[in-house]
Design goal:
Blueprint: H1 5-18, H2 23-30, H3 34-41, H4 49-59, H5 63-67, H6 74-87, H7 91-110
Helix pairs in contact: 2-3, 2-4
């Protein structure tokens, strides 16, 4: 799983602007330099986890707000992987898989 730092930087800039903050204001609130905030937003620097948490606190957002979409969750990966395998099945096999899923969900509801 790779972090899309370009997308994260764009989200950070967008959120900052939506909150009416300048880079200097964000830097001051996060205890960082204006130059460093600029470097993150222009993808010249990659923030450490500690720095990311400081930025999130200053922007009053969660790390997910900056990272969402940049990291594929394990559930998304499993869904994509399962769907790719499903597409390789014959129509008869797909019907069988569907029946299994329906039966499984029905059984789970009864518990």
């Amino acid at each position: 799983m790779d972090i899309d730092y370009k997308a994260m930087a764009k989200r950070m800039s967008k959120i900052r602007k939506e909150k009416g903050m300048t880079q200097a204001q964000l830097a001051e609130k996060a205890g960082l330099t204006n130059n460093y905030i600029s470097n993150i937003e222009t993808q010249h620097s990659i923030p450490s986890l500690e720095t990311l948490v400081k930025i999130c606190a200053a922007l009053e957002v969660t790390p997910n707000d900056l990272l969402i979409g940049s990291v594929q969750t394990s559930n998304e990966y499993l869904l994509d992987d399962s769907f790719e395998k499903f597409l390789q099945c014959t129509p008869k096999e797909k019907r069988l898989i569907n029946k299994f899923i329906v039966a499984f969900l029905d059984e789970r509801k009864q518990k």
